[in-house]
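[Q] Does anyone have a clean structure-token version of this?
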Amino acid sequence: MKYRFEQFKTDIENPTVAVSSVTDNMNSTCSVGVILTTPDVKMYGVTFDGFTYDVTWEDSDIEIFVTNEMKEHEI
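[A] Here you go.
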């Protein structure tokens, strides 16, 4: 898979995706920090905003959110 993020001047190919942080914005939304590591060990950090929850969240909820956000950047 190839991904494009406007803050980087390159396409990111076949990265390993790891959640590095979840920041609760205290208004039923979170920001999720993600590290993308390519096979040649280049690392890119991105933040996805807009994760929403009612009372709490599970790790699996964050993983689904990140997967869906990554799909938005596929090329």
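[Q] Thanks! Anything notable?
[A] The beta strands are 2-3, 12-13, 16-24, 29-37, 43-52.
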